[in-house]
Specification:
CATH architecture of the largest domain: 3-Layer(aba) Sandwich
Structural class: alpha/beta
Strand order of the largest sheet: 3-2-1-4-5-6-7-8
Largest sheet: 8 strands, mixed
Radius of gyration: 21 Å
Helix content: 55-70%
Number of domains: 2
Strand content: 15-25%
Distance between the termini: 34 Å
Shape: elongated
Order of helices and strands: EHEHEHEHEHEEHEHHHHHH
Number of strands: 8
Number of helices: 12
């Protein structure tokens, strides 16, 4: 059987990518397969999505051209040697595991292996993700385009050199968690003023969504957008000055920097 895309593991992130890409039309069910070790769960997923199920990891490697690794980093030393036994250099490997470098995979699969390293984030679950895409020198432009369109269907995707992966983790991989903290804080303050909790969350989340769209769609820098909304002597500039007094921007940068440093210590 000749299939194009093989998902080796479809847990939280891998499953979200698989479902989102199928729903968005980036993948066709008839050219997609999934491998899993939990047979009941695998059968349910394959039947739901109308894709081919595999219980032998080496078989899915033999049958598919683009292999998406969706298993956890701690499983790599167990699973990748099995894959290496049957891997051939005409196949593209896509890895999303934090801390697993292209060089680490080349050690197992060989210098001629075609490897793409990605770093998605959880908003991919709702079609608003940001994914970095990094390749080694063996991956052609056409092959990269076949990979990238999966992640374009889940939001946005951009190619970056692998040595930028730590910066990516700080700016988009981990930052949704920081943003959830910000939304939660805004909503709680609204609740303290008497607003009902669900309504407070709606107002806070929509404000953040709208602000992000302004950055992406107006072409204006965040600093200019901030200036535009701050009237002299008004409520917004009062809040901005308080945040500056409390070193808000420095705190956010410190959080991103901590995530970056942790990423560096995790890398194999």
């Amino acid at each position: 059987m000749e299939l194009k895309y093989g998902f080796i593991g479809a847990g939280n992130m891998g499953g979200a990518i698989l479902r989102g890409a199928l729903a968005g039309g980036a993948l066709a069910a008839e050219e997609t397969a999934v491998f899993g070790v939990q047979k009941d769960k695998l059968a349910h997923t394959a039947a739901e999505l109308k894709i081919a199920p595999y219980t032998d990891v080496q078989e899915i490697v033999r049958d598919c051209k683009i292999l998406i690794f969706g298993f956890k980093p701690q499983k790599f030393d167990e699973v990748v040697p099995k894959i290496a036994e049957v891997y051939t250099n005409d196949k593209v490997v896509v890895s999303m595991a934090a801390g697993i470098s292209i060089a680490y995979l080349e050690d197992y699969l060989g210098e001629g292996a075609k490897i793409v390293r990605i770093m998605p984030n959880t908003p991919a679950l709702v079609g608003a993700g940001m994914t970095s895409v990094s390749r080694n020198g063996n991956v052609t432009d056409t092959e990269l385009a076949d990979v990238k369109r999966i992640f374009d269907a889940l939001g946005r995707a951009a190619e970056v050199p692998e040595d930028m992966i730590h910066a990516v983790i700080g700016v988009s991989g981990s930052s949704p968690a920081f943003t959830y903290m910000y939304i939660d804080a805004l909503a709680k303050e609204a609740q303290s003023g008497g607003m009902e909790s669900a309504k407070a969350l709606e107002f806070a989340a929509q404000a953040v969504l709208g602000a992000a769209k302004m950055v992406l769609e107006t072409g204006l820098l965040p600093e200019q957008l901030r200036i535009n909304v701050c009237s002299p002597g008004g409520t917004t500039i009062e809040g901005v000055e308080k945040l500056r007094e409390l070193k808000f921007e420095e705190t956010i940068r410190a959080g991103a920097r901590a995530a970056v440093e942790k990423s560096k210590t995790m890398t194999k």
